[in-house]
Amino acid sequence: MSKFVLLLGGTVHVTDRLRHLIAGARVLAADGGIAHAQALGLEPELWLGDFDSTSPALAERYAHVPRSVFPAAKDMTDGELALNEAYRLGATEVILCGAFGGERTDHTLLHLTMATRHAAEGRKIILSSGSEEAHPLVAGDYAFDFADGTVFSIVAFTSLRGLFIHGARWPLENMELSFGSSLTVSNAVCGNLHVSLRSGNAVLIAAP
């Protein structure tokens, strides 16, 4: 298994869980996301992007890191460039670190939908800020290691069929959920959380 962590430009809170999640991973940085490297104790092997959000101080500090430079007028975000490069290098598991927050809500939404698309193609991908963690849900069965009381939500990107939630304060059995429903927002772990889904695309967002 080849695990990669991608440093993105959103918010990062360094936690023990995040350190454990990224341990042993190869590291790619997307533009200003390299700002998180020092706090996480990481050294990127490649720095990608158009570098429009890289400060002179960061450029000087990480001048030794190999760069892959793209024009600002390109047809994908720096984060997607980094993700494509991770898969080109053989990634079997990817952690998008810094995928939430920051100044660009559109980028946050893109990271969630982009991750779900790749999950539907059979790839393992997790998004984290340290204080929040997101797991794409496509047809299949899932087990999570969240502690009792952890608040979580399932946000549907399509209509969902055959949704089961076990090990939660409010379990569900074979539920159909319409796109845009808030029924599965603000649940909490009670025991060992298991989720299964027969069809549809969604994301589970937790605050571990």
From TrEMBL:
Gene3D superfamilies: Thiamin pyrophosphokinase, catalytic domain
Taxonomic source organism: Phyllobacterium myrsinacearum
Molecular function (Gene Ontology), one example: thiamine binding
Entry EC no(s): 2.7.6.2
Lineage of the species this protein comes from: Bacteria, Pseudomonadati, Pseudomonadota, Alphaproteobacteria, Hyphomicrobiales
Descriptive protein name: Thiamine diphosphokinase
Keywords, comma-separated and alphabetical: ATP-binding, Kinase, Nucleotide-binding, Transferase
InterPro entries registered for this protein in UniProt: Thi_PPkinase, Thiamin_PyroPKinase_B1-bd, TPK, TPK_B1-bd_sf, TPK_catalytic, TPK_catalytic_sf
Gene Ontology BP term (one): thiamine metabolic process
Domain Thiamin pyrophosphokinase thiamin-binding as annotated: residue spans: 140-203
